[in-house]
Amino acid sequence: QVRLVESGGGLVQAGDSLRLSCAFAGHTSMGWFRQAPGKEREFVVGVSGSGGSPYYTDSVKGRFTISRDNGKNTVYLQMNSLKVEDTAVYYCADSHLRIGVPTVMSDFRSWGQGTQVTVSS
């Protein structure tokens, strides 16, 4: 069964914004990854089970914001000032960590099927 379901991707112009959503089961630590064609899957951001102390990769810091609503079983990724380089399939992931913030791929257990984000110049 699929436990993580992403939505909110689309085709936008550089400078535009998108908000991605991820439906999940449980209150685990969470994160977002992305994968562009021909590239390895890349860590974007992680957050603790309580929503505190998010950790962002440098390329998105100041532009992307992660948040979560455990009551709605949803985690969000607000993406502002999008760049062509942000084009990728974005994946929501859950973590086995009980405390703290997951920051590397080995901290995560599984990924959703992804949502495509395409940014045109």
Feature tags:
7-stranded mixed beta sheet, mainly beta, 121 residues, 11 strands, 4-stranded antiparallel beta sheet
Question: What does this entry look like structurally?
Answer:
This protein is mainly beta. Helix content is 0%, strand content 47%. The chain is built from no helices and 11 strands. It has strands spanning 5-7, 10-13, 18-23, 30-35, 42-47, 55-56, 64-69, 74-79, 88-95, 108-111, 115-120. The strands form 2 sheets. Strands 2, 4, 5, 6, 9, 10 and 11 form a 7-stranded mixed beta sheet that branches. The protein has a 4-stranded antiparallel beta sheet with strand order 1-3-8-7, with no helix packed on it. The radius of gyration is 13 Å and the shape is globular. The N and C termini lie far apart (38 Å). The model has no long low-confidence stretch (mean pLDDT 92).
> Radius of gyration, rounded?
13 Å
- Low-confidence residue ranges: none
* CA distance, first residue to last residue: 38 Å
Shape: globular
Oligomeric category: single chain
Number of helices: 0
Largest sheet, in brief, is: 7 strands, mixed
Strand proportion: over 45%
Q: Classify the secondary structure makeup into a structural class.
A: mainly beta
